[in-house]
Design a protein that fits this description.
Largest sheet: 7 strands, mixed
Distance between the termini: 98 Å
Helix content: 10-25%
Number of strands: 14
Order of helices and strands: HEEHEHEEEEEHEEHEEEE
Strand content: 25-35%
Shape: globular
Radius of gyration: 24 Å
Strand order of the largest sheet: 1-6-7-8-9-11-10
Structural class: alpha+beta
C-alpha cells in the first residue's frame, strides 16, 4: 500500500513559515496610534569641553513665526534664494533687537535655513535644534519648529502628533527643552504651533485643544521626574496658537482650556494695541479684500503658576516688536518690500528673585 503524499513538502512548508513570520514582523513594526516623543540631535552645538555661559539673573525667551521660512530650493517661483536671503536678514534684525537667550521659531523648513540665519547675528546662538515632524500622510513636514539658544539645553525633544488616532488628530507637534537655572531650579520650554483657522471650526478647535492636552500631560510627567533632582520646575509654553480669546471671534473657543488653572495666559487683559502679534494687513490696490482681518494676539505665552506667585523666578509681562510686516498689501511675500512675516516677534523675561 502506498503512503499518501504530504500536502506540502518540507521545503514549501518552511518557505510558507518564513513568509508568515515576515508578515508578522512587518505588522509589529507598523506605527501604532499614539504620541511620538523623540530626542533631537543639534544642528549646531559647541565643541565638547566648551564652557557653558553662566545663567544671569534675567533670561529672555522669544517666539517668532517666520512665515514659510524656506530655502528657495524647489519652492514656488517667487521664492528664490535671493528672497530667502532678504527674508533671513530682515528676521535677524528683528531677533537681534529683542536679543533673546532662548528663541523658538515656527514655519522652518530645515537646518540649512537656521544656520544661514544664525550667521547673520553679530553674536550667534550656540545651540540650534529643529524638529523632524511628519504629516499624517507620512510626508515630511515643511513647517517645522526650531530652538536657538545661548544657554545649554538638555533633553531636547519633539512631541509628534501625526500618529494620534481619530478625526481630531492635531497637526504638527511641539518642541520641548529643559534648562538648568541653578539653585535647584529647572526651566521647561515648549515651542508650539497649533492648527490654523482654515477649514471647519469645530475640527480646528478640537485639534488645538488635543495638542495642548498632550503638551500639558508631558509637563506633568517632566515635573514629576524632576522632583527627584530639583526643588522647582518652572514652565513656559509659547508660540503661534492661532487663537485670541479676547477677540470676539474666539470668545467661545475652547482651544486653550487644557492650560487653564495650571498656567497663566500672560496676554490676558492687555490692550489690543500692546498685544497685537498679527497686525491688520490691508488689501491695497492689488491685494485681496477677503484676507483683511482685525488685529489679534495669536502668538501667546503661558507661564506656570510658580512663575507668577512666589517662586524663585518670576515672569514679567510679555512684549512684542511690532514691525517687519507689510500692512499695505496682504499679498506681499516674505523677503519683498521689507516684509519679514505676518507675525510679530514676542518676548518675555524671567527674573530671579
Amino acid at each position: 500500500m502506498k503512503k499518501p503524499k504530504p500536502l506540502l513538502s518540507h521545503r514549501r512548508l518552511y518557505a510558507l513559515l518564513l513568509v508568515v513570520s515576515a508578515l508578522l514582523l512587518w505588522l509589529l513594526a507598523q506605527p501604532r496610534p499614539g504620541l511620538r516623543i523623540a530626542r533631537l540631535k543639534p544642528v549646531l552645538a559647541p565643541e565638547p569641553g566648551t564652557s557653558a555661559p553662566a545663567v544671569s539673573n534675567r533670561i529672555r525667551i522669544a517666539t517668532f513665526n517666520l512665515e514659510h521660512f524656506t530655502d528657495g530650493i524647489r519652492d514656488e517661483p517667487e521664492r528664490t534664494r535671493e528672497a530667502f536671503a532678504a527674508h533671513a536678514r530682515g528676521a535677524a534684525a528683528i531677533i537681534a533687537e529683542a536679543n533673546p537667550d532662548i528663541l523658538v521659531l515656527q514655519e522652518i523648513e530645515n537646518g540649512r535655513v537656521l544656520e544661514f540665519l544664525n550667521d547673520q547675528f553679530e553674536h550667534p546662538f550656540g545651540w540650534i535644534y529643529i524638529s523632524k515632524l511628519r504629516q499624517s500622510s507620512g510626508a515630511n513636514e515643511k513647517l517645522n519648529l526650531a530652538l536657538l539658544s545661548r544657554l545649554p539645553p538638555r533633553n531636547v525633544r519633539q512631541l509628534g502628533f501625526y500618529n494620534l488616532a481619530g478625526i481630531g488628530r492635531p497637526t504638527r507637534g511641539a518642541l520641548a527643552a529643559e534648562f538648568d537655572l541653578g539653585s535647584g531650579v529647572r526651566l521647561l520650554t515648549y515651542g508650539i504651533h497649533l492648527k490654523s483657522n482654515f477649514g471647519e471650526m469645530p475640527r480646528n478647535q478640537a485639534q488645538r485643544a488635543i495638542a495642548l492636552h498632550h503638551i500639558a500631560a508631558d509637563v506633568v510627567a517632566e515635573v514629576f521626574k524632576n522632583t527627584l533632582v530639583s526643588n522647582t520646575t518652572a514652565t513656559v509654553i509659547l508660540g503661534d496658537t492661532n487663537v485670541d480669546p479676547e477677540n470676539p471671534e474666539f470668545a467661545a473657543d475652547p482651544s486653550l482650556e487644557p492650560l487653564a488653572g495650571a498656567f497663566v495666559d500672560l496676554w490676558r487683559g492687555r490692550p489690543i494695541a500692546e498685544r497685537t502679534t498679527i497686525p491688520t494687513r490691508q488689501a491695497g490696490d492689488t491685494g485681496d479684500p477677503l484676507l483683511v482681518f482685525p488685529p489679534s494676539a495669536f502668538d501667546r505665552v503661558f507661564a506656570s503658576r510658580n512663575l507668577t506667585a512666589g517662586g524663585p523666578w518670576h515672569v514679567l509681562p510679555p512684549q512684542t516688536i511690532q514691525h517687519g510686516t507689510d500692512t499695505n498689501n496682504n499679498l506681499t511675500q516674505p523677503g519683498f518690500n521689507g516684509h519679514v512675516s505676518d507675525h510679530h516677534l514676542v518676548y518675555v523675561d524671567l527674573v530671579r528673585d
